[in-house]
Design brief:
The complex is a heterodimer of chains A (258) and B (347). By secondary structure, chain A is mainly α. Chain A has one domain. The two termini of chain A are 30 Å apart. With 347 residues, chain B is an alpha/beta fold. Chain B folds into three domains: 225 residues, P-loop containing nucleotide triphosphate hydrolases (Rossmann fold); 58 residues, Alpha-Beta Plaits, CATH 3.30.70; 53 residues, no CATH class. In chain B, the strands form three sheets. Chain B has a six-stranded mixed beta sheet with strand order 6-7-8-3-9-10, sandwiched between helices. A four-stranded antiparallel beta sheet of chain B has the order 2-1-4-5. A four-stranded antiparallel beta sheet of chain B has the order 12-13-11-14, with helices on one face. The two termini of chain B are 37 Å apart. In chain B, strand 1 and strand 2 form a beta hairpin. Classes of the chains: A mainly alpha (258), B alpha/beta (347). Chains A and B meet through helix 1 and helix 5 of A and helix 2 and helix 3 of B.
Chain lengths: 258, 347
């Protein structure tokens, strides 16, 4: 990685840490501990299923909220507070700034997910008293959740490069919700006719396909995740993210900072 | 080689939400700043100073025209490694300490990792922030932030330093220190381009100044050149209480104080006035050229109200946008003779 991108990414990570973003981990730990104790008392035979489902859903939701709320301010805050002026007046290209911000927030989310994952495994151990090989499939689900965060970070950054934080939040959250039902949208497009079919197909392929990245239920039931899906999701996330970040860069390259 | 070359630089913004209207922030501007100069960029609020600086820094794109710094294009990273910039009312990452901030900017400017610690310590010492080096910027006062801003602008030893209102927010001691620092930078062979509305600072420091108002350049040159020519006056003092009628007729202002008369008039009337005094056999006490101050020159340039009102209309800009930004202030100051700049200059 280009050194300037690394420095900007490191500063973005430092900002998130010092703004106490990672304090959400405490809330997460409390939630999981409470849930584990509760589940241990009321569930019979399905403790693993409940803890994995609950734990991974919580990881996903916490991460999505952080990705959206930090992501939407990544560029706009720097413009509003004019901290960007002293960065772009240096030998830093605008695309390097966008890339640095993207990697900084993605890195923050990876660290965040790592600690939350420890919490999930801790809760699982508490409830089930032991870990089995199939439990490691949780790692695949966590990997897909991280891929989801990466796409959301790219989308938040994209909207942040030209609109206000409020609008960026609305756009990003809307795409997250629609993307969660992307498979349903594709199904609808398949049975629709005429213009509706054309529009639904376009929308289905334009919005991020988060449903393919959600294997929480499958993993909770102890089912394996195919290698092909891992490769497909990785390639899809890479292509989608590169496209969106490139779009953010193109817009930001032409933007005058009033 | 010129340090800064600005060629027909122009900027028009679109204002309004539904009905976009053009607002010209900068009329075609041509300016050359030589290497090693301290150059003052003067003008009231809304004159176009910050727009010009933002264009030079690549933060805003010009509508037309071009500029070069150290002979290189504005988007050339090699050029950006050789300039320093202090924005107006700077705000920095307040979760960082002053030392961390400077390290970050040093890294972005490409300062060698081995030299970085030494350079950061040196610049912190130079701007008087050594004791606050490990304090988070959110705990800094406005004056301390300004010092941090100056520190980041000079940290990487740039050849050209752009300072937007560098004295803003500083107490008298701080202002003196910044003045000394700017002179030191000149001593090191650097070019300093700074915008200010404190004319006393510009008069004391600058090799040359440019005056800009409503986006238009009103004058460029050394302070002595600008203040010597147009509007030069002479003060003549003679004994007695008699003021010959012809003297008032040439437009002289006369004041009788005790047994002397003090008269001030345009320099080109000097011979006529002295001739009249000789004819009346009045005893001449002194003849003194009255040097125009930079403030007088500034007000003369801004006080051209006819042009001020015509400009926005002729150029398609909004009248109200221009009037409420500077026109009202200027017309008031012209009538009362007190300018919004005079108090700042004396503070």
């Amino acid at each position: 990685m280009n050194r300037r991108i690394f420095y900007i990414a490191a500063n973005t990570f430092r900002e998130a840490v010092r703004d106490r973003v990672l304090y959400n981990l405490i809330a997460f730990a409390l939630l999981l501990s409470g849930a584990a104790v509760l589940v241990g008392q009321i569930s019979i035979e399905i403790e693993r299923l409940v803890v994995i489902n609950l734990g991974l859903t919580a990881v996903s939701l916490f991460g999505v909220v952080i990705a959206i709320f930090i992501g939407i301010a990544l560029v706009s805050k720097e413009i509003d507070k004019r901290t960007l002026y002293t960065v772009l007046s240096r030998p830093v290209r605008r695309w390097e700034f966008i890339a640095g911000k993207f990697f900084g927030l993605s890195g923050t989310l990876v660290v965040n997910t790592f600690f939350m994952a420890l919490g999930v495994f801790g809760a699982l151990l508490y409830v089930a008293h032991s870990l089995h090989v199939p439990d490691l499939r949780v790692l695949v689900a966590l990997y897909f959740i991280v891929l989801q965060f990466v796409i959301i970070t790219a989308l938040a950054l994209f909207f942040s490069s030209f609109s206000s934080p409020l609008l960026s939040a609305v756009f990003t959250f809307s795409l997250f919700v629609i993307g969660t039902f992307a498979e349903d949208l594709r199904g609808f497009a398949a049975i629709a006719h005429g213009l509706t079919r054309w529009l639904a197909t376009a929308a289905a392929y334009l919005v991020p396909n988060f449903s393919a990245l959600n294997v929480i239920n499958q993993v909770a039931h102890g089912e394996a995740v195919g290698r092909q899906l891992v490769i497909y999701n990785t390639a899809y996330t890479l292509a989608y993210t590169v496209t969106v970040v490139a779009g953010a860069t193109l817009i930001f390259e032409r933007r005058s900072l009033k | 080689m010129a340090a800064i070359e600005i060629l027909h630089l122009e900027k028009t913004y679109s204002v309004g939400f539904w009905r976009k209207r053009p607002k010209r922030a900068l009329l075609p501007l041509d300016l050359v700043v030589e290497e090693g100069e301290i150059f003052g960029f003067l003008g009231p609020n809304g004159a176009g100073k910050t727009t010009t600086l933002k264009i030079l820094m690549g933060l805003v794109f010009p509508t037309s025209g071009s500029a070069r710094i150290l002979g290189m294009e504005l988007d050339d990273p090699r050029m950006k490694a050789q300039i320093g910039f202090l924005p107006e009312q700077p705000y920095f990452y307040d979760y960082l300490t002053a030392r961390e901030l400077l390290r970050y900017y040093g890294q972005l400017s490409g300062v060698n990792a081995r030299d970085l610690t030494r350079k950061v310590d040196t610049v912190l010492e130079r701007v008087g922030l050594r004791d606050a080096a490990n304090l988070q910027l959110r705990k800094f006062s406005k004056g301390m932030l300004q010092r941090a801003g100056i520190a980041q602008a000079i940290l990487h030893d740039p050849k050209v330093v752009f300072l937007d209102e560098p004295m803003s927010g500083l107490d008298p001691m701080g202002r003196r220190e910044v003045r000394n620092l700017i002179e030191e930078l000149k001593g090191e062979g650097k070019t300093v381009f700074f915008s200010t509305h404190i004319l006393a600072d510009a008069e004391a420091l600058c090799d040359r100044v440019a005056i800009i108002h409503l986006g238009k350049l009103r004058g460029v040159g050394a302070v002595e050149e600008l203040t010597a020519g147009v509007g030069a006056q002479v003060e003549v003092v003679w004994a007695g209480t008699i003021v010959p009628a012809g003297i008032r007729a040439v437009g002289a202002e006369c004041h009788v104080a005790g047994d002397t008369v003090r008269s001030v008039f345009a320099a080109d009337k000097q011979d006529a006035v002295l001739e009249m005094l000789r004819r009346e056999r009045l005893r001449l006490i002194s003849v003194t050229p009255v040097r125009m101050s930079l403030e007088d020159y500034f007000i003369t340039q801004l006080g051209d109200l006819g042009e001020m009102n015509l400009l926005p209309r002729a150029e398609g800009a909004t009248r109200e946008g221009s009037a409420d930004k500077s026109g009202v202030n200027v017309s008031t100051s012209v009538k009362t003779g007190a300018t919004p700049y005079s108090s700042a200059g004396k503070s």
